[in-house]
Amino acid sequence: MSTVHEILSKLSLEGDHSLPPSAYATVKAYSNFDADRDAAALETAIKTKGVDEVTIINILTNRSNEQRQDIAFAYQRRTKKVCQTPNGNPPIAAQSAHPQTNELSAALKSALSGHLEAVILGLLKTPAQYDASELKAAMKGLGTDEDTLIEIVCSRTNQELYEINRVYREMYKTELEKDIISDTSGDFRKLMVALAKGKRCEDTSVIDYELIDQDARELYDAGVKRKGTDVPKWINIMTERSVPHLQKVFERYKSYSPYDMLESIKKEVKGDLENAFLNLVQCIQNKQLYFADRLYDSMKGKGTRDKVLIRIMVSRCEVDMLKIKSEFKRKYGKSLYYFIQQDTKGDYQRALLNLCGGED
Question: How far from 277 is each of 71, 116, 239, 253, CA to CA, in Å?
Fold first, then answer.
């Protein structure tokens, strides 16, 4: 059997655009799908004395997000008899109903607890609803969970950010940007707001060597070369240029500066801003390695940072988990599957291993 690594090297970057979006997913659409059957099985599993967690996990971690939305609707129909339009489809209002308010989420919330509950409820939200709710939680109450805020806004595409902004507005009746502004300050706030707008150039068809050289020189001139850092200049370049362009800029940067971009950031800025720029550059250089590092950090040493572990497993399992696993094994010598096995237990472990998609 070919290893994940072999498969990935065959699916080289050049071929990326011709591949289906799920090419690197560990969780894919279930071929013999029947929303009503799944809804009935979940209803039985929830009502069983002691709750049948295994059935709940096996169904929800083996269906695509779209299929999980269909199951939630079928469940609603079983338990609440929602109205249907003449063509048999759910009314639009029901289709976009908040996952927080749907019957299945409510039933599972009362049936499950702890980390398993967090995984399962996360899977029932659409990707944008999940990101929006994670962002809201990161900014709620006293103090901000900067790491979550940074991870999400640094790693999502324009299209994903557009969706997150739309859903955030729908769910919380306020703008994401407004919440970021009231919860952060200074240059860190400027960077987060610029990223959350999702205005990065995504046309990657033209390689402009002149602009690559100019951006590399400007990053150097605005930082290491002078006293004090011209942070707005860094923000402009790093939040507006395309990812492939910036990868070449960071390479070129080394011909101007005695330090690479990451070292320069550590010398030039501190605190949340340093953390944000470091995350951003790592994300631009290799997004899947960035997530592999975040997963490793969430499990290394004593105790597990379960929130980070859950969020990455839930949000990347239908995007690029195969690539993340490959980067993880290459860098840390052991598989992500092995780490999750060592670090978690019980039904929670079972759910995460399903999202991980088997041993490499």
Answer: 40, 32, 10, 15
- Residues 132 and 150: their CA atoms lie apart, in Å, by 13
Write the CA distances from 62 to 130, 190, 350, integer angstroms: 18, 40, 12
User: Whole-angstrom Cα distance, residue 288 to residue 284?
Assistant: 10
CA distances to 12, 31, 68, 89, 97 from 74, in Å = 39, 18, 10, 11, 13
More confident residue, 1 or 73: 73
Amino acid at 25: A
DSSP 284-348: HH-HHHHHHHHHHHHHSSSS--HHHHHHHHHHHTTTTHHHHHHHHHHHHSS-HHHHHHHH--HHH
Residues 6+ apart with CB under 8 A from 322: 4, 7, 8, 23, 24, 25, 26, 357
Closest by alpha carbon to 233, among 250, 244, 220?
A: 220
Q: What angle in degrees, to the nearest 10, is found between the helix axes of 321-332 and 287-299?
A: 60
Reported as a single tens digit per residue, the pLDDT across 228-285 is 899 999 999 999 999 999 999 999 999 999 999 999 999 999 999 999 999 999 999 9
Q: Is the pLDDT of residue 21 over 90?
A: no
Residue range 83-127, pLDDT digits in tens? 555 555 655 444 444 444 589 999 999 999 999 999 999 999 999
Kind plus residue range of the DSSP H or E element containing 118? helix 114-124
Q: Is the dihedral of CA 256, 261, 267, 268 positive or negative?
A: positive
Q: Name the token pair of 47.
A: 């009502």
Confidence of residue 13 (pLDDT cuts 50, 70, 90): very low
189 vs 197: CA distance, rounded Å:
12
CA atoms within 13 A on the CB side of 52: 13
